[in-house]
Amino acid sequence: MNFSRFIVGLTGGIASGKTTVARILAEQGVPIIDADEVARDLVEPGQSALEEIVSAFGADILDTTGRLDRAALRAQVFSVPADRERIEGILHPRIRQEMRRRSDIAVGPYCVLAIPLLLETSQKMLAGAIPDGSGNSQQEELHRVWRRGWGISRVLVIDTPVEQQIERACERDGTSVDAVKAIILAQASREERLAVAHDVIVNDGNLEHLRRQTMVLHHRYLHS
């Protein structure tokens, strides 16, 4: 990876406004590499990741066309930590590698990696690492992991009050309040994300409020 390139890691909880911020930046000519999109590409028929998932969880997680049935897989692994870790072990290294590859060839003033679970996956990487004896704080260690593993220069967190997350997710996805609350509890907390953020956009107002904050950071990133 070209570590001299300025790369922003965009993250936040469910229904926080990450996609909207990414769209605003894309309108300014900033290349957006989305982890969810990469993950979908990696489980297309014929991909090694899909073959490994089927081997681990059985053919019942495929639909009638041979494609991954995401709802079936989610229902199977979400409530079983060991299964969730297994699927993450299959997908996350591949996602990281493919995002690095795409960021190397992206054309634009800087690059954004949209990674909803950036903090969660990085915490697991740290938990499995051997301490280097440097005495660095977890925040410093996470920044080091993001720099070395993803090439990320700054982490941008989209922060939204939990009540608004629940309301937006229910309206957007048609899911129940309890289902959204379960997802929020499974993710890093607002406090954990804010503690490691370089930059924060507070999405608690209307679209214009969100756009103004995004453009302020965009102009700052252009001069980084």
From TrEMBL:
Catalytic activity line of the entry: 3'-dephospho-CoA + ATP = ADP + CoA + H(+)
EC number, UniProt record: 2.7.1.24
Pathway info: Cofactor biosynthesis; coenzyme A biosynthesis; CoA from (R)-pantothenate: step 5/5
GO molecular function: ATP binding; dephospho-CoA kinase activity
Transmembrane annotation, as ranges: none
GO BP term, example: coenzyme A biosynthetic process
Keywords, sorted A to Z: ATP-binding, Coenzyme A biosynthesis, Cytoplasm, Kinase, Nucleotide-binding, Transferase
GO CC annotation, single: cytoplasm
Pfam family, one: CoaE
Family label: Belongs to the CoaE family.
Cited function: Catalyzes the phosphorylation of the 3'-hydroxyl group of dephosphocoenzyme A to form coenzyme A.
Protein name, per record: Dephospho-CoA kinase
Name of encoding gene: coaE
